[in-house]
Each structure stands twice: as C-alpha cells, then as structure tokens.
UniProtKB/TrEMBL annotation:
Gene3D superfamilies recorded: MFS general substrate transporter like domains (1.20.1250.20)
SUPFAM superfamilies (alphabetical): MFS general substrate transporter (SSF103473)
Keyword terms: Cell membrane, Membrane, Transmembrane, Transmembrane helix
The protein's name: Permease,MFS
Pfam families, per the entry: MFS_1
Protein's cellular compartments: Cell membrane
CDD domains cross-referenced by the UniProt entry: MFS_MefA_like
Keyword Transmembrane listed: yes
Organism encoding this protein: Actibacterium atlanticum
Gene Ontology CC: one annotated term: plasma membrane
Source taxonomy: Bacteria, Pseudomonadati, Pseudomonadota, Alphaproteobacteria, Rhodobacterales
Amino acid sequence: MVSLLKHPVYGPLFAAQLVALTGTGLMTIALGLLAYDLAGPHAGAVLGTAYAIKMLAYVGLSPIVQAFTERLPRKAVLVGADIIRAAVALCLPFVETVGQVYLLIFVLQAASASFTPTFQALIPDVLPDEEDYTKALTLSRLAYELENLLSPAIAGLLLLVISFSGLFVGTVIGFGVSALLVIRTPLPARPRREKPGPFWRRVTRGGRIYLATPRLRGLLALNLSAAAIGAFVLVNTVVVVRATYDLPAPYLALAMGAFGLGAMCAALILPVLLRQAGDRIVMLAAACGMVGVSLALGLFTALFGWPAWHLMLAVWLGLGACYSGVITPAGRLIRRSAHNTDRPAVFTAQFALSHLCWLITYPLAGWGGRGLGQSTTLILLGLIAAGALWAAGRLWPAGQDRAPEHDHSDLPPDHPHLKAHPMSDHGHRHRLIIDEIHPHWPR
C-alpha cells in the first residue's frame, strides 16, 4: 500500500486529497464557532440548516454540474473547484448575517459537488489494476478517518494562539495546496464520447446506468443502511456522551475516535477480505453486523439503560468497522459497472444518491433523538437499516457479474459486439455493462 504513495500521479493526488480534507475539517470547527458567534444558543439550528443546504447541493446540483463540466479537462475542473472553495473560505470570516453563511455554504458545496465525483472517477484511470485501486480506496478511507481524528486536535492547538476566524485561513491554505498539487501532476486525458448527446440525457445518464445495474441498486440500499446507523452516531453521540453519561467534552472526541479507529482497522484488512470473499459477501456481512449491533444496543438500552462506558466504546468501535466494510468497496462496484467514458457520470450518481440517503436519515436521527429518546431512535434507524439490507440482498442477487443469456436482434450480424461475443442458438452471455447496446439488464 505504501508503494502507491510513490506513484507519480496517484501520490500527489492523494496528498491533495489529504490537505483538502484537513482544510475542510478546520472549516467545520470554525463554522460551528462562527454560528455560535452569530446566533448564540440558536447555533444548532443554523448549523443544521447549513448542513441541509450542503446535502441539497450535493443531491440536486452534482449531476447538473457534472454534465456542464464533462467536456472540460479534469485538471481545470479540479483546480477551479479548489479555487472557488478557497475563495469562499476566505470570505467566511467577514460574514455578518446568517443568510450570508447559507449563501457561501451553498457556493462551496456546489464546488465540492464538482470536485469529488471528478476526483473519484479519475483514480480508476490512474490505477487500472483492481488490486491497486482497492488499496487506493483503503487509503482514501484512512484519509477521511484521520481527518476526523486530527482536525479537531489541530484546531484545538491553533485556537490556543489565534481566534476561530484564523481557522478559515488554514482552510484556504488546504485548498490552495491541493490546487497546486493538482496543477503539478500530469493527469490522464478524459475519455471522450463520440456522441455526447443532449444536455438532459447527459444529466441523467449516470442515474440511468446506476439504477439499471443490479449491483448498484444493491449498493444504493446499502448506502441507506450505512446512513441510518452512521447518522445516529454522528448526530447523537454528543447527546449520549454529555447527557446520558454526563461526561465532559473530551470524552466526545474519545467516542468518535473509537468509531474512526474501527473504520480504519476495517479498511486496512478489506483488501484481503475482498480478494478472498468478494464484494457482495463482505458488504452484506458488514451491513448485517451493523444492523445486529445497533438493534441489540437499542433493545438493551430500552430495557436496562446504557452499558458501562468502556462497553459503549467497544460498540462504537464495532459499528465503525462495519460501516467501513459497507462504504469502502463502493468504488470497486462502480468501476466495474461503467465504461471509462461513463464513470464520471456514475460516480456522480453515487455521490448524489448516497447523500440523498443522508438527507433522509440525518433529520430522523436528530428529531427522533429529541422527540422519541435515544433508544427508540436507535431501534427505528436499526429497523430502517435492516429493511435496506434485506432490499440489498434482493436487488443484488449472487452471480450477477455475468448477465443472463440475451440476444441482439436489433444489431446487424457484422456488428463489432457480435464479433467479440458470438451468438449461439439461445443468445450469448458475457460480463455486462449498461450502455447504448445494453440499455437494460436482461431478465
């Protein structure tokens, strides 16, 4: 895995991702302090609205932005997005109203809706070998979890010597360094489509491919399962730690660190598990573990109260490991489910649809925890995750890598596809990807 960091293209791209994530982590903390400075005790409502705007931008704008930018060079898209995000971070210390915060967050997340899917679709072209790509997914997961662990620590040290507005400068530096690293890195050319098609078809192409592919329909259900449990952890851990256990703020970092540590440990062993068992078994097993642990904890707390603190940390460690087992392999499924010309659109569909799941589960976790109590909310979200897991198993049957036998009566006998895959009396079978020749999955 370390050898990947020496790759002349992937190494700088990973470094760009890491510094941008660090800058984003600093901004998250600074944004919370800015909200309190502007709204006082209503800061939670401000942040909740800001994060809802973030999700709406991801869900609604990412397919449109991708369609607008798909003909632009990848380097221009990535660097442009970083420059816009740096400019927004530079403006945030000078805002005077909550409305200005909402506007700037919308612009920033619109830029992220362009950057992230483009970056994700680029990596399979940089690392065409599946084993190398799997290791890259592991490194990406480690980067996200390290950001969750290190950014609060870095912010805490900086706040000893500067005001919270100075953290936004760190965000600007993070995005600026990311842009410089991308500028200096030679990127592979974007694959070109011979017939791009009308704009609206370009907007919806990724979603059509995604929803027509069984393994990706299963992935969508697994995204909902992971979001249900992940939302409870991210939204309600602070309430559990401070109100239920009556512990000071540093223990919140310990609880979230346990979740992150579990995710990192799982990410490190995933390349071996995926090679031996395959994506479907690993992802469904991880989701099953996540559902079982969350429902067991919810029932236990409803009957007997919350367990001892060290047991709660162990549960969060296990949930983090299972969460990583569900989320990390997603890129592998997308990589083998789309031609390289369609990958940006399909990665964008995954980006939008997965955040739609979070848009549903975040309010359920927050409002449910307040109105129904933590135990009932955890059981409710666990049942949603269980239903999504059942749907994933049905939508993604075993053995779907090869399609059922099918024919192409609409193609001429000398078509290149029929030459590559000769027809028998009953049709033919091959590894299938949804495209112009196969607009639907054969039944």
